[in-house]
Design brief:
It is a single chain. 64% of the residues lie in helices and 11% in strands. It is mainly α and 344 residues long. The protein has two domains: 153 residues, no CATH class; 118 residues, Calponin-like domain (Actin-binding Protein, T-fimbrin, domain 1, Orthogonal Bundle), CATH 1.10.418. The strands form two sheets. Strands 1-2-3 form a three-stranded antiparallel β-sheet, covered by helices on one side. A two-stranded antiparallel sheet has the order 4-5. Strand 1 and strand 2 form a beta hairpin.
């Protein structure tokens, strides 16, 4: 399919959501980037055109004012040539000079007002565009996060319901807008309602119970129960065990700052697919490259969906541990039975 003919970003996002092909998704993402850049260029061109028109209008008004001033001056000089009373001529000349002085002051004042309005207009437009982009990114992140949690909650056998609220505040000058969004998901397990904030962790808990179903004690079968903190610790230890050969480069101590440059993700997927890329060539300072390499490789080789957004990970020195935990949990689910894992 020729994506270059599509100029609607919303349509491209729908195609991206519906596509499972790795190469097709990369093409769609590249086209979305091109469309955004094209829209930005078009907006800049329109803004410059409006600015030029405003400047031309001001110049034309100044030219007309100078012509009017010259006509009045010529009329005065013509009248003065035929006037015989020197006193009256002197008073008229002073009156005309005073008018010229006032006209120059008015001209200067209008120029200062125009320049001030132009500066405010430019800043407000820039802030408006930035605010729209930021709100759109928040919206997309909320949707992706909700889909991820719903998927894990369904895997844990839960019924899902969702409510959302939004609040918009606009300042008195009308130039800035702040929007606050809150998503609340409620799940049902065995007829009782519980907040879904730990849905991903509960899914991992059931997944681990499936791999380690029972523990015999006192002659009877008793289900192996683990607390959320024990599950988190177990997954962290699994990550350390899978990346022992990379201890000279990475140190996995938590689910936040230990993953902020992308090398931990690269090491984890490289352990299972060492032929996919050269780990030793990676640079911890090239964070964007590391995140993109890890997410793309995991999706291509292990069919692990890229639940984390590269832009969000780059902005944060300490990523949200719950988001990282949820994504790493998908590594465990997909690769727990991998032959490289069994070797450990």
């Amino acid at each position: 399919m020729d994506y270059n003919r599509i100029t609607d970003e919303e349509e491209l996002n729908k195609l991206l959501s519906n596509s499972d092909n790795f190469d097709e998704r990369k093409k769609i993402r590249a086209r979305i980037k091109d469309v955004r850049e094209q829209h930005q260029k078009e907006w800049e061109a329109k803004r410059e055109s409006r600015q030029k028109e405003a400047q031309d209008l001001i110049k034309e008004k100044h030219r007309q004012a100078d012509l009017d001033k010259q006509r009045k001056l010529d009329a005065f000089q013509k009248q003065a040539a035929t006037h015989h009373e020197a006193k009256h001529l002197d008073m008229a000349e002073q009156h005309l000079r005073e008018k010229h002085r006032l006209a120059d002051e008015e001209k200067k004042k209008r120029m200062e007002e125009y320049q001030s309005r132009e500066a405010v207009h430019k800043d407000s437009k820039h802030l408006e565009v930035s605010e729209k982009v930021f709100q759109e990114r928040i919206k997309q992140a909320d949707i992706l996060k909700q889909k991820t949690l719903e998927g894990y909650d369904r895997a844990a056998g839960k019924d899902i319901s969702q409510t959302s609220t939004s609040k918009t505040e606009t300042s008195s000058d009308g130039r800035t807008t702040t929007t606050t969004r809150r998503l609340e998901t409620v799940t049902k397990v065995g007829g009782a309602n519980k907040p879904a904030g730990k849905g991903a962790m509960n899914a991992f808990k059931q997944m681990d119970a499936k791999n380690n179903p029972t523990n015999t004690a006192g002659g009877g079968n008793k289900a192996l129960m683990r607390s959320p903190s024990a599950i988190k610790t177990m997954l962290l230890e699994w990550c350390k065990a899978m990346t022992r050969e990379y201890v000279d480069t990475i140190a996995i101590e938590n689910f936040s700052s230990s993953w902020n440059n992308g090398l931990a993700f690269c090491a984890l997927i490289h352990h299972f697919y060492p032929e996919s890329f050269d780990f030793k060539s990676l640079d911890p300072k090239q964070r964007r490259k590391n995140f993109e390499l890890a997410f793309d490789t995991a999706e291509k080789y292990a069919d692990i969906a890229p639940l984390l957004d590269v832009e969000d990970m780059i902005r944060m020195e300490k990523p949200d541990w719950k988001c990282v935990f949820t994504y790493v949990q998908s590594f465990y689910r997909k690769l727990h039975d991998h032959e490289m894992n069994k070797a450990k």
